[in-house]
Amino acid sequence: MSNTDQVLRKSYKSRDDVQVGKFTVAILDTSNEGQFAMSASANAGPIAGVATESLIPDATQDYSGGKYIIPSGAAWPVGSIPSSINGKAVSFAVAPSIIRVIAGASIAIGQRVNIKATTVINSVNVMGSVKAVSETSGNVYEVGEALRAATNPGDVIRVRLTQVLRPASNPAV
Question: DSSP states of 102-150 as a string?
Fold first, then answer.
C-alpha cells in the first residue's frame, strides 16, 4: 500500500468562527450552499469532507511532539490574528479519495468509520475525529473505510473516503 494520499479537493466556506484542524471531518451546512460546519455530534452529516489544511490562529501549531493539539471546532480565540475566519474557505478531500484522518478511538483495518462525538485528544477537545461505525439502527453518515489501524485517540490513519448515507443494517453499501 502506498504511503501517499490521493485526494480530490473541494473548498467550502466556514459558517462559524471556529478553529479547523487538518485531517478532521466536517459536515455540510444544509441551510447555506457552499458552507461547512464542525459537529460535536456522533454520526453527523451530510459529510463535507476531510480538511486538508488547518484554519487556526497565526503562530499556532497543529502538532507538538508528534501529538495532535488543535481544538478543532472550538470558538475562534478573541484577540487572534486574523480576528475572524467566518466565511474563509477551507480545502476538503472528498470522495473518491484516500486521505488521513484523526482517530477518536481504536479502529481496525477495514472497519467503516463515521464522525465521533467531541473527543478529548491530548487534553484538547476535538470535533471531527472518526470512530468505527457502531450504530445498529437508523441511518449512518459513513466517512469511509480504514486502510490503517488506530490504537489510540489522536492517531492519524488513512481512510478511503466514501461519504455515503446508508442504513445501519447494511454496511456493504
Answer: EBSS-B-TT-EEEEPSPEEETTEEESS-EEE----SSEEEEEEEESS-B
Measured in whole angstroms, the distance separating CA 21 from the mean position of its chain's CA atoms is 8
Q: Where are the domains of the chain?
A: 6-167
Cα–Cα distance measured from residue 58 to residue 68, given in angstroms and rounded to the nearest whole number? 17
pLDDT at 56: 85
The DSSP symbol for 145 reads E
34 Ramachandran zone, left/alpha/beta (phi>0; psi -120 to 50): left
Mean pLDDT per 10-residue interval, the chain, length 173 residues: 76 92 94 93 94 84 74 84 87 94 96 92 87 94 96 93 91 61
Distance (Å, whole) CA 34 – CA 69: 28
The answer to whether the bond into 167 is cis (omega within 30° of 0) is no
Query: What pLDDT was estimated at residue 1?
Result: 47
